[in-house]
Amino acid sequence: MDDRVLILNFVPSSLSMIRFILFCIVLVPAFPSVATALQDTTTHLEEVTVRAYFTEQPLLRLTASAGVVGRTTLGHQQGTTLLPAINTVPGVRMEERSPGSYRLSLRGSLLRSPFGVRNVKVYLDEIPLTDAGGNTYINLLDAGGIAEIEVLKGPDGSLFGANSGGVVLIRPQGMRDEQDHTASLRVNGGSFGLFHEQLSTTLNPSPGYRFGFSQAYQRADGYRQHSAMKRAAFQTVQRWNYKPESELRLIALYSDLRYLTPGGLTEAQYTNNPKLARPATPATPGALEQQAGIVNQTLIGGLVHDTRIGTRLKHVATVFGSHTDFSNPFITNYEIRDEANVGFRTYLDYTGGRSTAFSWHANVGMEWQYGKNDFANYENHGGVRGDAMAIDALRSNQHFYFARFSADVYHRLLLETSLSLNYYGYRFRPLFPDSEPRYTRRTFDAEWMPRAALSYMFNPQSAGRVSVSRGYSPPTLEEVRASDQVINTALGAETGWNYEIGFRWQTPNRRVTLDGSVFYYRMEDAIVRQILETDAEFFDNAGGVTQRGIELSTSTWVIEPGQTSWLRGLQLGANLTLSKFRFGDYRVGNDDFTGNKLTGVPGTTLVSSASMQFPKGIGAYVMHNYTSAIPLNDANTVFANAYHVLQAKVTWDKPLGSNVIFQVFVGGDNLLNQRYSLGNDINAFGGRFFNAASPRNFYGGIALRI
Question: Domain TonB-dependent receptor plug: where (predicted)?
Answer without folding.
Answer: 61-167
